[in-house]
Amino acid sequence: MLDNIINMGKEHMAKLIQEQTQLDTSKTDEAVGVTKDTVVDGLKGELMKGNFDGVMDLFNGNAPTTTSNPIVSSITSSLVTNLASKLGIGEGIAKQIANIAIPFIMNKLSAKETGQASDKNDLIEQLGFGGDSGIGGLLGGLGGMFGK
Length: 148
Known about the structure:
- This protein is mostly helical.
- It has helices spanning 2-21, 25-48, 52-59, 70-87, 91-109, 120-127, 135-145.
- The two termini are 28 Å apart.
- The relative contact order is 0.15.
């Protein structure tokens, strides 16, 4: 699902990023890729820490999609760091990109059109993190280790 959200909004995000930062097309495309990876890693990290309620509230539209939300704030900070280090751009431009991309993605993620998660397994599946190689498989394995 995150892939779909980012792919659907890629052109719009790229256009805004180019207009506001003056990055060339190549760097803009790289920025979108780094953004996608950072958001996915951030949400997976929250789930791995057991913060299902926080991610579910965000996904279901019951939590703020701004940096007042600790999950969004953490992902935004990680994105700024990742953009600066991977693209070799200044922190100011990285913050501009984060301020464009993160609200866009988080608003789409929490929109009613993307669906609602009824439980942890549903959340993992809807985010596209399921399967044996994803978080679903890891959590299943951990549950098996602890007799659940």
